[in-house]
Amino acid sequence: MPIVVRIDVELARRKLSVGEFAEQVGLTPANVAVLKNGRAKAVRFSTLEAMCRVLDCQPGDLLEWVDE
Amino acid sequence: MLTTDRVVQGLRGLLMLAFVAIVLLQVMSVPGTISYNAEQSSDPFWEYPLLIVLEVELICVQVVMVATWQLLGMVRQDLIFSDAAFRWVDLIIGAMAVAWTVWAGLGAFIFVTSDDPGLPLMVSIMLLAGAVLGLLMFVMRALLRQATTLRTDMDAVI
Question: Where in the numbering of this chain does the HTH cro/C1-type domain appear (chain A) (predicted)?
Answer without folding.
Answer: 13-62
